[in-house]
Amino acid sequence: MVLRNSSWLDPSDPIPVFIISDISNSKFFIMISYATFLVILSYSLIIFFNVKVWRFMAQYEYSFSTSTKKLQKQLTYALIVTAVAPVFTAFFPLILAIICVFFHIKTSGVGLLVMMAIVWNSTINSTCANFLVKPYREAVIKMLKALKNSPDTIIHGVPTWATSNTS
């Protein structure tokens, strides 16, 4: 049920009003409950498996090389950042929108801000993986150096960074 009362509509405001649903709508409540369950489940699994990996690595520490330990630490940091990023780019903005619906607060412009924040999630996740994990970071730096140093970046349909050997 979309809200159509005058508290949600303001024809003088150039930014469209963000309309979700009435909080008393049972379908909306079920949807929010299901989404909350999925978030709690996914974060519980992330924490559970991360703890299992760290315990396994601690138990068999003597059999892992220093580089394996460093890579595992980098991957863990990347996992933490990719797990925390949606909190700021999706959960907080959506919670703000839901609070506005619950308390019948005029939400002009909030919908735009929510959508703008959600879009950043994929950018943050891929960027953190590229910069927090050393092999990925080195590959990106190698590619950027090849692009910078070569005026002709494409040779016969293959990027020069893919074929150059700078090692």
From TrEMBL:
Keyword Transmembrane appears in the UniProt entry: yes
Segments passing through the bilayer: 28-54, 75-105, 111-133
SUPFAM superfamilies: Family A G protein-coupled receptor-like
Keywords from the named record: Membrane, Transmembrane, Transmembrane helix
Top-level taxon: Eukaryota
Listed PANTHER family: 7-TRANSMEMBRANE DOMAIN RECEPTOR C.ELEGANS, SEVEN TM RECEPTOR
Protein name in UniProt: Uncharacterized protein
UniProt source species: Acrobeloides nanus
